[in-house]
Amino acid sequence: MIPRLCYITDGRRGTGGRPLAEVIQQAARGGVELVILRERTLLGGEYGALIEALLPLREQGLLLAISRRLDLARAYGLDGVHLAADAVPVREARAWLGPDALIGYSAHSAPEARAARAEGASYVTLSPIYPTSSKPGSPGRGRAWLAESTRGLGVPVLALGGLTPARTHEVLEAGAWGIAAVAAIGAAADVGQASREFRKALLENTT
Predict the structure, then answer these.
(1) In terms of residue numbers, what domain contains 23?
(2) CA distance linking residue 10 with residue 116, whole number of Å
(3) Given this model, what pLDDT does residue 54 score?
(4) What is the pTM of this model?
(5) If residue 8 lies in a helix (H) or strand (E), which one and from where to where?
(6) C-alpha distances in Å from residue 33, one per residue of 116, 143, 144, 173, 188
(7) What CATH number does residue 156 fall under?
């Protein structure tokens, strides 16, 4: 089953000076089910060391994916990859990693999401739903856009962009399967507590 709560790392937006591995560990303890590593500045050896530090968390049930890097996903036996329009096509990633790999895709329109589904994506993120610090000046696409984009899509959607626990019910009502967060989890003063609040909101609105 596709996870409902995802944390996407982003070194540019920081972790409050805390080691990333520590932040991810706290997020996992708080209820995050899937972590997507999106560390664009890390070199291969640095990335490998980070992944190795996180592998024990997979034994505790955390799913671990990586943005774009099919080579590292395969080398370390990760659960999958997360792709975008300028990355390797979904169909090629599926062929390379196999039928059981978790392959996500960052979509910004319904046609883009449908194309990813047709090529074999396991899930898509749709963004930005609300205003977010990563896209200053953008008002977000809104709930109506999310509802229209998810209608008849046929693949699980993780809503992304400006999400908070209080907004969780809104995106679920609009058709999202779950949520993905970046700074709302990684940059939170208490990562574990932020994750628990998201998890609680998801449970309250999916049972």
Answers:
(1) 5-206
(2) 23
(3) 97
(4) 0.96
(5) strand 5-8
(6) 22, 24, 27, 21, 17
(7) 3.20.20.70
